[in-house]
Each structure stands twice: as C-alpha cells, then as structure tokens.
Design a protein that fits this description.
The chain is an alpha/beta fold and about 240 residues long. Helix content is about 25%, strand content about 25%. It has 7 helices and 14 strands. Strands 1, 4, 5, 6, 8, 9, 10, 11, 12 and 13 form a 10-stranded mixed β-sheet that branches. Strand 2 and strand 3 form a beta hairpin. Helix 3 crosses helix 6.
Length: about 240
C-alpha cells in the first residue's frame, strides 16, 4: 500500500519557529517531525510515500531526498498555490494506481497501529476508514459522530440524515490518519482548493460506508508552540517511543 503525507501547510501558528524552517522539519528528539511519520509508515510496511510541498518546500526535498536514507521511496508534489487536503490528494491521484492508500497529516505524532487500521478498512469493505479517538475537547477538533459498529454517520453535523436507528452516536475526533479507496476522489475538483472532508460528506449523504477505527494510544498535533513543547516533553519522558 502507498501513502501520502500532507506537509504543505504554512505553519502560521508556530511562528516565529517556522519563519525560516517549515513545520514538518521542526526537530523532535532525534528526527524532524515529518520523519516520525515516515518511520511509522515504514514500520507497517509502507515504503512508497508521496509528500506535497508548498511553504519552504525545497528545504523538505533537500532534507529527505529520495528517501533512501530511510529505506523508503519518496515522491513530491509541488503546490505553487495551496490545494487543501482534497485538491492536494487529487493532484497525485495517479500515484496510487487505483488502489486503496493511506493519508497522514504531517503535523501529528501518534503510535497508531496502521496495520490494524488497514485491516479494519478491508474487513468493512469501506469507501474510507478514519482513525478516530475520544477526547474531552472534541468540539475543538470537530465532532465525528459514529454509530453501531463505529460506522461514521456525520462529520461536524454533516452527512447521513439523522434517523431513529442512530441511537445515541458517539462523539469522537478525527486523528488525521485515514485509508481511502480511489473512488473517494471521484468528485473532488482537480486543480482547485478543497477539503477532503467535503468528499466525505458527499459520500455519507449518499449512504456510503465510512468506517471508524477507534484507538486510544498516543496522539498529539504539533500546531502551536505550546503543543510542540508538550510533545517534546513527551518524547524526552518516553511517553512515545522513538520510531526505528
């Protein structure tokens, strides 16, 4: 299975740290942030990875090269104008060769078992499978409502129409890691900005199966100086293992 790491963001909330260094290259223990994600992918057998680039993208390309130092094969997608999570994935649609693929947000750190995530996707024969987790601050991240069998019903209130058999949906957050079937991109516009969440909502409204994979391991985004400092402390304390 191939994967894409989304790394084209501007890192505005982390300035001045990201004034001259792109967020994906911020140091975290022995590796840059982006390399943690690459090594997580490699640990679960993923060796071919696409990385999209925009802000200070050449630094990322020069640092990571072709990926051989990580025993991986890296490709890059330049975005002179930001395309968002939907448009960015759509631009490299051919890279996935019409097979299911993983997408990972490049500004998160997690010990998620990607092999189990993929197994869940295959078992459910889902259009997509989202890694979701419980969080006391779920409203901050955007609510993912899951129903029976952890099937995703609605994302931020949009998706499947509310029905009596929904029961009391669980309110969870999206962890920024998911498996997508190529069909997911069918209605994503090419060459323009869009969010992949728009595609999710479109399919949910039409009854497509979107699975939720619930996990409770380590997860953090690195979106602010405070959260970056917290993750650094967690790495130093051994709360998350250094990938190998």
């Amino acid at each position: 299975m191939k994967a894409m790491v989304l790394a084209a963001g501007l890192g505005i909330r982390l300035r001045p740290l990201t004034k001259s260094v792109p967020k994906p290259l911020l140091p975290l223990g022995p590796y840059p942030l982006l390399v943690w994600n690459l090594l997580l992918l490699r640990r679960h057998g993923v060796e071919h990875v696409m990385i999209n680039l925009h802000y200070l993208g050449e630094q990322i390309r020069q640092t990571l090269g072709d990926g051989s130092q990580w025993r991986m094969q890296l490709s890059y997608s330049e975005e002179p104008v930001l395309l968002g999570t939907g448009g960015g994935i759509k631009q490299v649609e051919a890279f996935f060769e019409d097979a299911p693929f993983l997408v990972v947000n490049g500004d998160t750190i997690t010990d998620l078992d990607l092999s189990e995530l993929v197994a869940r996707h295959q078992k459910e024969e889902a259009l997509a499978t989202m890694a979701v987790r419980d969080d006391p601050d779920v409203e901050r991240w955007g609510v993912i409502e899951t129903g029976e069998g952890d099937r995703v019903l609605r994302i931020q209130g949009k998706g499947r129409a509310t029905q009596e058999d929904d029961g009391s949906p669980c309110r969870r957050m999206f962890a920024g890691v998911h498996v997508l079937d190529p069909c997911m991109l069918r209605h994503v516009p090419r060459g323009s900005f869009s969010s992949i969440i728009d595609a999710y909502v479109w399919w949910l409204q039409r009854g497509a199966t979107v699975a939720g994979y619930v996990f409770s391991g380590y997860w953090s985004d690195v979106g602010t100086p405070e959260r970056y400092a917290r993750v650094q402390r967690d790495v130093e304390a051994g709360s998350i293992n250094v990938p190998a």
